[in-house]
Amino acid sequence: MPVVSRSMRLTDRGIYWVLAAALAAAGLIPEFRSLGNLANVATQSAALAVLAVGQTFVILCGLIDLSVGQLTGLIVVLVCDVAAGRDAMMAPALLLAIGLGAGSGAVTGLLNNRLRIHPLILTFGTMSVLQGIVFTYTDRSVGRAPAAIAWLADGRLLGLPVAPLLVLVLAAGAHVTLTRTRFGMHVRAVGGGRDNARRAGIDTDRVAATVFVISGVSAAIGGLLVAGRLGVGYPHAGAGFELDAIVAVVLGGTSLAGGRGSVAGTVAAVLLLGLTNNVLNLLQISSFIQMLVKGLIVIGAILVNQPGGRRAFA
Amino acid sequence: MSTEAERPRVRMAAIVSGLSAGWLERAAIWVVLLALLGVAALFSDAFVQPIYLFNMVRQAAPVGMAAIGVTLVMVMGGVDLSVGAVISLAAVVAAVLMDGQAGNIGYALAATLTIGAAIGFANGVLIAWNRASPFILTLGTAVAVYGLTQIYSGGTARGIVAPGFREFFNQRIGGLVPVLALLFLAAASLAVLVQRTTRFGRSLYLVGSNPGAARLAGLHGARLTVATYTLSGLLAALGGITLLARSGVSSTFAGRGFEFDALAAVVLGGTTFEGGRGGVGGTVAGLLVLFVAFNLVNILGLNYNTQRVVAGVIIIVASAAYTLLTSRR
Amino acid sequence: MKIRPTAICAALMVIVAALPLTSLAQGVETARVQETVTTARFKKAAPYRVGVAAGYLSNSWVVFCLQHIRYEASRHKEISEILVTDAGFNPGKQVADIEDLISKNVNLILYWPVDEKAIQPALEKAVAKGIPTVNTGGGFTYGPGTVANAFIDQVVLGDMVARQLFKDMRGKGRIIAMLPIAGTTAAVDQLAALRTAIKEFPQIELLSAEYGDWNRAKAKQITENLLQRHPRIDGVFSPAGQMSIGVAEAFEEAGRLKEVVMSPGDEYNGWLKWVTKHGRGGAVTFPTRVGQEAVRLGLRILNGEPVKRGLTVPSEYISPASISRYVEPKRPDDWWASTLPEEWKPK
Q: CA of C182: which chain B residue's CA is closest?
């Protein structure tokens, strides 16, 4: 399958150079070098990393999922409200989160396969619906995250921050799935060319539905991390995550046209974004200038990274 | 990446259909719009009152202006997500440059449009010569432009609108058609004309459906890219001016989210991300579908949360209906 | 000690006189606001580094409030530095910002939350490290993470706006309410105050409560549809001036401005201009100088002086007749009437 063999190219590695350069520059700031600060950056980036890893599957498959941000918000609210701070409710809350994430992803996948409308429009619509559901449920912060979830998001295990470890495990799993399994090959094949993939005997609808489910589950896990960090069910908690996730995926070298890209690049891009935030804060740069700098970094990184042609999604 | 070599025939077909799309395909979104208006009229007679309908066109004008530019970019196979930021910047800059003096209006508008065009030009240059993904690149531009707006304004939408400016654009000609609505319809008609009858318009479709063939045909893709993004920036700035005229501006983020409304209108209108198809006419219909939907849920007295749910469902259903209509040819 | 009957009488009279006052505007959690906080453990020697953890900065009221903070700080030699972070409406970022300020060893944190509950754990970390925290702005927070509040009571504000509106409407008619972003303290408190006040006016009917997100264009568009839905609207409850302008414009364009009574807005300059032009509406202030009060309150805590849990900065009613003393016709709409000296006003 030629599509797969073309999937990793050296030009896609730009993000690692950018990240290395940024790390080296940041290393000049004494406050940045402290282990505590580095752990902070990694912990703060964890939720976005999980969402971005999920989005990598979707985009590799040539699709896109704008609904994950609001889905994250819904899960944050429900988990905190149901658990209300009780550790005994941990298991039901987890089940609820994962179930809801997977369920929402499955519905999106089904609609995608049946309606045949552009996934950007479809998930723009479901994003709006989910937002309405979140705010119908509550318009203000509710509940409290159980201690166990707070530990997951903010705690330490053998002196190491838990959330980044979780990201590492999930990202490794995702990497293996995408590079070493049949399903991973199918995802790339569908993203590389749906018609060819179908002709090669791949059940493209099933692949598409599965990646949306993966995206939904990543929103659930991301939601748990956000809930743990905030401690309460804040209804706006997920706003904007969808765009940040997409930006990270594409900065990481995954082509919006599908078929080409990697989880490792995505994680590197998330780190780059978190690092930028942290360094600009440490340097006490005004938030308005920070915004400008962040925009320029996104532009710069995409120029260095050059993931594709002149198409909207390439 | 695999599509380039493997689908030349599809591409050629797309060129043909892009240039002379079947009437049903072009009419489909208008059918959807009429159906939605019919449904809306069942709930409220506002939707058969010309004065209300024209007001809706005026409401839609700021997003609509930007959507025209986004359509042209997308026909060419690109996308422009920076328009919301440009709208915000333009509204603030225009008011600051007017500084409450009617004599400043001309210069303020010219300068604002120039800034918008310059941002579009920068987008175009970066995309044309670096082959970067327009989706992310223009998203990055948006963040940078918001930063510029904040630095320029210090966080408040300072600036004073000149007397007479808003009054002129909001007056209703014949007591019915607001100047702003007319301006938008004129801009849209002009764009339709350009896209149908000029070499520039035809080149957009050619490049959009097959950049390789377009290059062979002697079209300078890079120059076209720069021109189209510049136009998009200019139209977004016009959208910002329109917004300032319609409702005044009380925030430095006045246009936030408009890029997605514009995108939704364009895609509802039948212009695809692949490029080479659709056009401004469809976008106008798609835009009106969105605004009828938003206003309908609002007029029904549904609360804001329900509005979000209903609006989302309408976007999905209208889009699906459109797909169904066009695929039955 | 001998108690004179006249004294008892006088005391009783004061109590009786005060009764209607208290029932008139029962603010947020009065007892907790009045609670005394001992601050000995925060006592420190100058110089002080003051951190400001802003939930957001891209809003003109907040810009003015921050200028008040900077101005007040400039008047105190003991303040050596002001560090400002901006969370841009993201509570997760505000948590990180507060953590950053702690690691930068600030001595005092002033903040306004994106979401008050979400940042409590981060604030508690600060307090545990001996850094006092002062909630600054439009809400009162009672919790271990918030040492004190300098705030404008939005229940009182909403009540004042509602009562002035009902008075101007002669206690009768159908009204709509235009509120800020759903779920914010402002929206929740103002609506609660309106609903409470309305109980005393059986002839006032609330047709619809809408959320205009502090956005003039959005408020206008929503009102355009409300005008379609309701053939008669007698009053508008809109405490935020920047939305009031959008609402009033929609009424004016529909030719229905005459039928409606606009409630007081706030001292947003664009609204003050509108009030000046139309001679109606007035304002109930949402004073930006709360930023200054917060700095003073913070310094007293660093001094180890006991303080009240909540320091309210009272709203005042400005009638349309006296609006000319506040409006700045040569300034932008997006501007606030304030007590800032000219050189400290935003550039």
A: B304
Residue of A nearest to C56 (CA): A287
Give the whole-angstrom CA distance, residue A25 versus residue A185: 37
Fold designation for C154-284: Rossmann fold (3.40.50)
- Interchain pair C95, A229: CB under 8 A: yes
Domain boundary assignment for chain A: 45-305
Question: How far is it, in rounded angstroms, from Cα A57 to Cα C158?
Answer: 49
Residue B18 has pLDDT above 60, yes or no: no
CA distances in angstroms from A139 to A72, A83, C90, C218, listed in the order given = 15, 18, 16, 19
Is B9 contained in some domain?
no
Residue B18 domain-assigned (yes or no): no
Distance (Å, whole) CA C11 – CA C6: 8
Q: Is residue B114 part of a domain?
A: yes
Task: Give, rounded to a whole angstrom, the gap between the first and last alpha carbons of chain C.
Answer: 61
What's the pLDDT tens digit per position in A256-302? 778 888 999 999 999 988 888 888 877 777 778 888 888 888 787 77
Q: How wide is the angle at C-alpha C175 spanned by C-alphas C172 and C177, nearest 5°?
A: 145
Mutation for B interface: C60, C65, C214, C243, most B CBs within 10 A: C60
Looking at the complex, does the CB of residue A236 fall below 8 Å from at least one CB of chain C? yes
Strands C173-179 and C204-211: what pairing?
Answer: parallel
Instruction: Read off the pLDDT of each residue in C322-331 and give the average, rounded to a whole number.
Output: 92
C335 touches chain B (CB under 8 A): yes
CB contact under 8 A, C228 and B299: yes
Counted domains in chain B: 1
Shortest distance, CA B52 to any CA of chain C (angstroms): 9
Q: Does B256 touch chain A (CB under 8 A)?
A: no
Q: Is position B223 within any domain? A: yes
Q: By CA distance, what is A76's nearest residue in C?
A: C118
- Contacts of C245 by beta carbon, 8 Å cutoff, 6+ apart: B248, B250, C216, C219, C265, C270, C271, C274, C333
Q: In the β-sheet with C204-211, what is the strand arrangement from edge to edge?
A: C204-211, C173-179, C235-237, C261-262
Each residue's pLDDT tens digit, A45-74 = 999 999 999 999 999 999 989 899 999 999
End-to-end CA distance of chain B: 29
Chosen from C65, C181, C221 to mutate, greatest number of chain B CBs within 10 A: C221
Q: How confident is the model at residue A10 (pLDDT cuts 50, 70, 90)?
A: very low
Which among B95, B155, B247 is the nearest to C57, CB-wise? B155
Distance CA C308, CA C35 (A): 6
Rg for chain C (alpha carbons), in Å? 21
Give CA torsion, residues C326, C327, C331, C336, to 10 deg.
Answer: 60
- Per residue, the 3-state secondary structure of B224-288, as one string, reads HHHHHHHHHHHHHHHHHHHHHHHHCCCCCCCCCCHHHHHHHHHHHCCCCCCCCCCCHHHHHHHHH
Domain range enclosing B200:
23-327
The answer to whether A141 contacts C118, with C-beta atoms less than 8 Å apart, is yes
- What pLDDT shows up at residue C275? 96
Q: What is the pTM of this model?
A: 0.82
Cα R_g (chain A), whole angstroms: 19
Q: Which of C214, C242, C346 sits opposite B154 (nearest CB)?
A: C346
C36-152+287-315 has which CATH code?
A: 3.40.50.2300
> Among C103, C72, C188, which residue's Cα sits nearest to residue C138?
C188
